[in-house]
From TrEMBL:
The keyword Transcription regulation applies. Residues 2-62 form the HTH tetR-type domain. InterPro entries: Homeodomain-like_sf, HTH_TetR, Tet_transcr_reg_TetR-rel_C_sf, TetR_C. PROSITE patterns: HTH_TETR_2. This is TetR/AcrR family transcriptional repressor of nem operon. Residues 25-44 bind DNA. Pfam families: TetR_C_13, TetR_N. Gene3D superfamilies: Tetracycline Repressor, domain 2. Keywords: DNA-binding, Transcription, Transcription regulation. The keyword Transcription regulation applies. SUPFAM superfamilies: Homeodomain-like (SSF46689), Tetracyclin repressor-like, C-terminal domain (SSF48498).
Amino acid sequence: MRDTRAELLMQAETLVRSRGYAGFSYADLAEAVGIRKASIHHHFPTKVDLAAALVAAYDVRYADGMAAIRAGTPDGPGRIVAYGRFYLGGVEQGLGCLCAALAIEGEALPERLRGDIAAFFRRHLAWLEEVLREGVADGSLRPDIDPSRHGRFILATLEGALLMERLFASPASFGDTLGALVESLTPPPRSP
């Protein structure tokens, strides 16, 4: 049985991640899924409803992924690398981060979406701050790291690298940026 709602969300996510919120219409989505525009309105009465559902689903996927990283990766550097791999997937697919693609449109977005996107990024910053705090405490990260400041640095670096390497279609360069980022956070090796 066809799950039209799931197909709509999947295709809409690709459209937003590649074109932005203003860059697609229900006509584009109807064509991508192979249904009439009226059928989309049955599932998502407005484009804002659709985008809010996209952000919510994206947020759940990331939350699940971040929980898995915390559970399965024992140290700060490993957790940052695993988190960075989320972004590498976007580079490999030629797609931007959904919430960054939406955030770029800033004040042009409905207030509801701006709030949802801000909450998404606040959750990521809180997660990064905790990972950094734990990494400093266990000695896997430099002791002079300020979790709040460096959490923003990590998020901004990865979002910027995704944007740049998506343009250049360069997953290897993204990997180099991720490596340099992690290296900047780790203590230098101890001399024998």
